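Need the bound structure for zinc ion, inputs here:
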Amino acid sequence: MRDVVVIGVGLTKFGELWDKSFRRLIAEAGSKAILDANIGGKDIDAMYIGSMSSGRFVGQEHVGALVADASGFSHLHIPATRVEGACASGGLAIREGYLSIASGMNDIVVVGGVEKMNDVGGNFATETLATAADQEWEAFFGVTFPGLYAMIAKRHMHEYGTTKEQLAQVAVKNHANGALNPYAQYQREITLEQVLNATMVARPLGLLDCSPVTDGAASVVLCAAEKAKEFTDKPVKIIASGQGSDTLALHSRRDICTLDATVHAAKMAYKQANLTPSDIDLAEVHDCFTIAEICAIEDLGFVEKGQGGKAVENKITTLDGSLPVNTSGGLKSKGHPVGATGVAQLVEIAQQLRREAEKRQVKDARIGLAHNIGGSGATCTVHILEAM
Amino acid sequence: MAGGVARFWREIPQRYNIIGNKCGSCERVFFPPREACPHCRRKSLGKMEDIKLSGKGEIITYTIIHVGPEAFKEQVPYPVAIIKLEEGPQITAQIVDCNIDEVKIGMKVENTFRRIQEDGYTGAIYYGYKFKPVKE
Ligand SMILES: [Zn+2]
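Answer from helper R.:
Posting the output first, comments after.
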């Protein structure tokens, strides 16, 4: 296996971007990453694109080739492949790109993630996200996607005494971080009272416990470490890539409060990197709902099972805490264009390790982790990056 | 929900009568029925036997849905729970015949045959299981 590094990153603004089409978004993020990496089209061996549901959101499938075309590479006939794993599509695209370089097949790969969610109405967007759940045995009976995470939250409260206030503090923290991120959908702070008093979506989760519907794209350029010097003097090394799967339906899991796909992917990644959770300096985790961040920091081994709520309450995960989590604002405040999310997480970690995170910069950050979930936890990727 | 009537029709035995299956090798019970037992895999092939489940169980966790999908809009707010059935499998279903504030983790429930949703486009009405509290 060859070492793989990130040599370029690119991000569009996240939000309701009425004037930008699906193809414009991904071409913009890709161009930024390619410029940042200082490569040209002829250097690219392959492209991997994460998109959850372009078919339902913009009525367009076959987006691997479309992205290569929109990026101006049709005449180069670059192999371009779309990867899908619900909200983990971006993380999966990163891993496919990583594996193709590590294997020796490719030297330089452009990875992109994109979702254009606002062209359809809110109801249709919500039902599209619900296709990540088990359609026959969950959705058919009236449970929504927020409803699944609400049931995780309810059980977590029952077993570990986690409170609605602790859930709310995840949102407050992530908005505080997002307020410092010029690419975030919501660049404003919110109060605990606002979260607690927000319109109920699925008890105990209110509107401000949920990540928003977002348009956006992200891209990274990956390169074989041995070739990276030709292009950049600030490579960030991917020291581990883990992936796991689990039952599609939440009800069939061993434990409702544990995402075993995360546990598995994390174990795989820590083993490859020869690290323990305490070696991680900062993490971007999949906070599609506030409870998801609490489960993530437990399942990634940062705190013991059941202690996630307490950890948030004790401010361990704030920007100046001992383990900053979601410095970008997370899915909650930065926004969650589902296919782009896993790639955008890697952009944030790479920028932090390159000391380019400006007001969000974590001092002395050397090792960062990105955690991307699909559905209610049936797919997970974990990547660990190290500054060089 | 996308798909034609056949998509619903083929699941009728499971949704109307809670028919699961049982591994002939380890006796574990599954719902919905599985092609093979995930624990015994190869050994279970050809030994998976359909069984009707009791439809009795206990609430493991629940939520009250306040913002529902189009086909359930008329029903909000409604409780949905994960129920552990006596035979072992856990399933997701609506809880009915009680005040939504009475729904609790640990509550004993049993299945009842109800209208689940109506397809606004075709007008098809879909039926299946919901669960109600067991009267002591
Ligand atoms: Zn078996």
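Comments: Chain A has two domains: 4-121+213-236, 132-210+237-387. The mean pLDDT of chain A is 97.
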